[in-house]
Fold this protein.
Amino acid sequence: MIRIEALSLSIHGLPILRDVSLAIGKGQIFGLVGESGSGKSMTALALMQLLPNGAEITGRAHLDEIDLLTQSEADMCALRGNEIGMIFQEPMTALNPVQSIGDQVAETLLIHDAATRAEARRIARDRLDRVGLSHIGMDRFPHELSGGQRQRVCIAAAIALHPRLLIADEPTTALDVTTQAQILDLLKDLVAEEGMSLLLITHDLAVVSDMADHVAVMQKGEIVEQGPTAQVLGQQNHPYTRALFAASSHQPDRAQMAGRAPLLDVENVLRLYPGPRRGLTRGDPVRAVDGVSFQLHKGESLGLVGESGCGKSTLTRAILGLDPIQGGAIRLFGEPVTPAMRNDLRAGIQVVFQDPYGSFNPRWQVEKLVAEPFHLMAAPPPDRRDRVAEALQSVGLQPADMTKYPHEFSGGQRQRIAIARALITRPRILVLDEAVSALDVRVRAQILDLLADLQSRLHLSYLFISHDLTVIRAITDRVLVMQAGRIVEEGETETVFTAPAHSYTRTLLAAAPRLDIMGRTGTNAAM
Amino acid sequence: MLRYLLNRLISLCLSLVAASLVIFLVIEVIPGDPAAFMLGLNATEANVAALREELGLGGTLPERYWAWVSGMLTGDFGTSYTYRVPVADLILDRLWVSLPLAGYALALSTAIAFPVGLIAASRRGTATDYGIMGGTQLGIAVPNFWFAMLLVLVFAVNLQWFSAGGFPGWADPMAAIKALTLPAIALALPQASILARVMRSALLDTLGQDYIRTARAKGLSRRQAVIRHALRNALIPVLTIIGLQFSFLLAGAIIIENVFFLPGLGRLIFQGITQRDLVVVESVTMLLVFAVILVTFLVDIAYAAADPRLRRK
Amino acid sequence: MSRLPVSLLLGAALSAGFLAAALLSFVWTPHDVESLVIANRLQPAGGDFPLGTDQFGRDLLSMLMVGARTSIAVALVAVGIGITLGVPLGLAAAATRGSLLDEIIMRGNDLIFAFPSLVIAILITAVFGPSALNAILAIGIFNIPVFARVARGGALSLWTLDYVLSARTAGKGKVRISAEHILPNIANLLIVQATIQFSLGILAEAALSYVGLGAQPPTPSWGRMLAEAQTMIYTHPMLAVLPGLAIVLMVLGLNLMGDGLRDVLDPRLRRQRT
């Protein structure tokens, strides 16, 4: 039983948490949900007493009879990993790269003097088997494992001593949807088996609704609503919960306007990467994109969905004429796309990338940033400034923003600037490469609305690349499902989602956590 | 692992060939006729021809290059024009001073730098840290040969604990080590300052990594996390710097030998320059460059031992 | 940008002091540094000779001022060589990552790294005889791979960023992207590295002229002042102490400035402040 009462936290005088109270019963899964910066992770780190320097904390936190906030550092060391285990978001960096995975799991036992070296290794093997890594040797190093496997190693190390509480801080955010489903299943099974409590921290309402018995919604360092999951998500008493819920399953209003004329014609495209070096020779080339064909029609919104490494980014770069292809053909408005293609052809297809922080040269003002694609024109238009102002207004920003620098904007505003930049040459096709994946749900919903609005106003065609099925379903007319360099299924979005034909599509859809099981009572009013 | 080794070995050989070409080009091709160059302006045509014959400067350039390289491979470094003895013998003699000196200095430098860097990193932001950082900043700014002169002034002239220079030979090992102590300290101090700073920042970098947080969540104390996880990861950048420093130590040793009148390679090479003995200069520089390239190779191997990501399969 | 770090201010003040002394020496020094007046030899500090004279009767203060000029000139030109040749090479290597050009540039770098600047100086001197130009060339050549590496490393991480991809979809070529997007954003790294190489250049120049491979008489230089003082160290230690102190303070000043600049310019640290 974990009890947090009136927990407040400030770091260097800056308030982070205010009056947080919650209780997690034995064997219970407690979901803590909120947007980035809401204080979810800090709550967990406060329980672990692993806060950064300058943290001042008041209130009480008990793990059964143990008062966590009054423990000495030495006593906390004895508790961490023993009574409370924790796993983090980024499995790629969470393990020591120069130590074998067996040693890293066994270390939990050794550090608490819970076993001899030989016993610890035996137990570590056992725990690795339990988390589904029975086929992986103890002497393997983290870089030899996939992200999902690494997260399993982290879980094995965290539960090696059967802790009373496991804290999982966004444990699946960095993972693909099928891997996410497996890891969440594993966590659920472990909770049932070990009788431990799980504090599951996530930004994803769907994950919580799938997993948690209890849920607390956090906003700006405060818990605004909590209770049994079905009740909180079903009734949505607090407006913030309603807003989150609505945004998570937001469906922008879109007009059907797909025409028949193909603007972009991708035909049997092959993209090879050189194979791994073998001494002086190389192995067989990797077929990153393997015989992909599709057409994008005028006014259409076409989705391309697939997991990381499936080749969708490689395909995108080929379509944008950034990389050469080794077979097949890409034709844009009937003309071939190559790295050497003409500038006026390029002006017809522009792109918005995922990362709102890496998308802009930090030393340029917005005017120069947005105007950069004018380079594609033979001569910059005389009304350059007016065009930039117009583009900024069309994405909901002010002409006055022209003189600002990118760091003065939030993530959502930066994505608006990126869209303005993509629109400045008045292209007919916009490629959106994970364009809303890095945004919080409410901002994401706003950007999706903007994209839907722009499409109907400007008669744009979208190629929308994403790993996120919800987003694809919300914004596309037709969808392509990509796996291992090939398109395995293609069809009307609704048809593919309701009656998937290919087994991989079915796996993807089954793995995606669903929010709609509770029925929707919220409205879009909170937007 | 084997493939990685083989790869590094090939790269070592290529570097050696490239370096030998550069040296050959500068010493034997650019001056035109090395024999005439060595004899100076007053040499008669007959003398020059005789020297050319003696040095084996007859054939074409590729022939001469091959003769030089294949000679070195069999231990024949040519004959010194001024000393009239095989250069290999000269080098071997001097190596027994220069090599122990560089090794002594490297050992001192790491022995000082590791604990100092560790202390500074683990007490980050405290007065100890600031003191160490200030001290190392000063240590980097001190030219080693000037520091050597100060050491002589204090420990040899005023306190008379050490002799001011010279080398008694290895017949009496204690006396030899004593004679190398001040030079080694002078060499080691600036390098130790750099290394300590690198050690500190490498440790601080690794301490900010996610896997340290994971380790703390498993119940390791700060100290245990440093010792069991941070140190070995921090070693990777530190190794790079140790490898780079070797070439500075070698260069520094050449200069320090001048302060302490040590009969090492440095003295040999400067005598070679003043006496226009190109054979000596050519062979000794090749040897120095060989040492640097060899150390780079050894560092690469140490990498593989420290980092499993490099020795896959 | 609220407050500049103390190290930056202190370092800049020290460096500016030496630079001012060096510039002043072009138009005025207390005494002529090239005339040897035996009558004035080994004067103690004070009076007409604020820091005393050496065994040839030259005024130490004047020698130190002109020596600063020599050091700064050599180190500055050497840094210039390193930047003008190294940075374009590094940018080209990064822009063509993994290509033959990249490979050739990086192998060439490794090769130069195998020749410490002293060894380069030895080779040049053996054939052309000693001169200040030697020192400049030797240090400058060694600076090329340093700047090439820093530029390539910084540029590689930028080439993966989306704004570079955006520029490519805007039809810009590699040269233009390197000039517009890459170079301005690695300028911080290069400035900090330049300060470090400048201070290393001062140290290297001192070492080279100490062993006679640098500036030749009668041009005064700190390194040769130390060499000349070596025989006098038993009787007149100040002759050896003063030039050494000058080197230490100049190098310390530059290093402090480099550290301070790094703190001010490092984008990671700056982001924390805003």
User: Anything to note?
Assistant: Chain C has ten helices and no strands. Chain C touches chain B through 41 residues (CB under 8 Å). Residues 174-210 of chain C form the longest helix (37 residues). Confidence is low (pLDDT under 50) at residues 269-274 of chain C.
